[in-house]
Amino acid sequence: MLEEAIALDLSLTQIKQRVSDLKAKTGEATAPERSLKSRVDAAYTRVKKSKVWDDPKKQKKLEKLLAELEALAGEGLAN
User: Fold this and answer.
1) What distance lies between CA 49 and its chain's CA centroid?
2) Mean predicted confidence (pLDDT) in 33-62
3) What does the radius of gyration of the chain's CA atoms come to, in whole angstroms?
4) Residues contacting 5, CB < 8 A, separation 6+
5) Is the overall model pTM greater than 0.90, yes or no?
6) How far is the CA of 27 from the CAs of 21, 24, 30, 41, 53, in angstroms?
7) Mean pLDDT value across residues 7-26
8) For residue 27, what pLDDT is reported?
9) Is the model's pLDDT at 20 over the cut of 70?
């Protein structure tokens, strides 16, 4: 986990959330909604820092995934 935190330049909050998620997987209770939200937040942070912006194929896939997320959240309906 330490290597991943360093490689992804995770914030203290993100590290704490990952520890919490790990504890949840090993049997300790946590709210599933919180875990899902933290995963979305972490994915967003990783995408912002990734090299997806330099790769047209990855940009196209990201655009498709973003459209799906917007539709799921109801944002895509207004367009």
Assistant:
1) 12
2) 84
3) 15
4) 14, 15, 18
5) no
6) 10, 5, 9, 23, 38
7) 86
8) 65
9) yes
Q: What residues does each domain of the chain span?
A: 2-78
CA distances from 8 to 12, 51, 55, 57 (A): 12, 12, 19, 22
The amino acid at 22: L
Q: How far apart are CA 47 and CA 10, in angstroms?
A: 12
At position 61, the amino acid (one-letter code) is K
56, amino acid identity: P
Place of tokens 């944002």: 75
Structure tokens at 56: 């047209």
Q: For residue 2, how many C-alpha atoms fall within 13 Å in the half-sphere facing its CB?
A: 0
